[in-house]
Amino acid sequence: MKGNVLNVNSKTISEINLPEGFFSVPEKKHLIYSAIRTQRTNKRRGTASTQQRGDVSYSTKKMRPQKGSGRSRQGARTSNIWKGGAVAFGPHPKTYHIKLNKNEKRVAIFSALSSKFREGNVHIVEEIKITGKTKEIVQLFNGVSDNLKKELGTILLVYSDMNGEVALAANNIPYCKSLNFKFLNVYDIVVYESILFTKEAVGEMQGWWKNE
């Protein structure tokens, strides 16, 4: 399977052999949905908590006599109908963690990536070495956009450790997220409009995902 490689410096386009197991996987929408749901749900902290009657710091003495006043019957001040009392049916700490097995996660990632590749929104660039300056990333994006003759929109930049201080350089760009290929995930693949891979990331990704 062939893919185009953009050289921003020389403004040339060459070809590279891409692993079919990463870029030509049939789209499996149910797995993509499950992976996104798992990823977002597992970010929930589940720390919301309200006081029950036993937790409220008030006397348990009966508020007024049961009969004779003509008013409603009331028990302790800790009741939920009183201001500052307990909360009826309120939330308590819990875990929202759900599990997606490793093979399902892997298939979901490369199914989403393959779908993005077929749409023409995955691009590979070579000779990228960033020293940590934001202007270097901006020049890279402008060069890719000029080569492709189209706007990239929001960008997910997937790099390897060989590409220098990419994360530092991309921190100040609101429409871009930099991501080491080891942390590739379905949510980011789906959310961002364009995905830029460095050539080094594509090469190292094969060995990493094979051995994971």
Description of the structure:
With 212 residues, this protein is an alpha/beta fold. Helices cover 34% and strands 15% of the residues. The chain contains seven helices and six strands; from the N terminus they run ββαααβαβαβαβα. A six-stranded mixed sheet has the order 2-1-3-6-4-5.
Summed up:
This protein is an alpha/beta fold and 212 residues long. The chain is built from 7 helices and 6 strands; from the N terminus they run ββαααβαβαβαβα.
* Assembly form of the protein: single chain
- Give me the CATH superfamily of the largest domain: Ribosomal protein L4/L1
Written as H for each helix and E for each strand, in order along the chain, the element string is EEHHHEHEHEHEH
Instruction: Give Rg in angstroms.
Output: 27 Å
Whole-number count of domains: 2
CATH topology of the largest domain: Ribosomal Protein L4, Chain: A
What does the secondary structure layout of this molecule look like, with pairings?
Elements: E1 2-7, E2 12-17, H1 20-23, H2 29-41, H3 102-118, E3 122-125, H4 134-148, E4 155-159, H5 166-170, E5 176-180, H6 186-191, E6 194-198, H7 199-211
Parallel strand pairs: 1-3, 3-6, 4-5, 4-6
Antiparallel strand pairs: 1-2
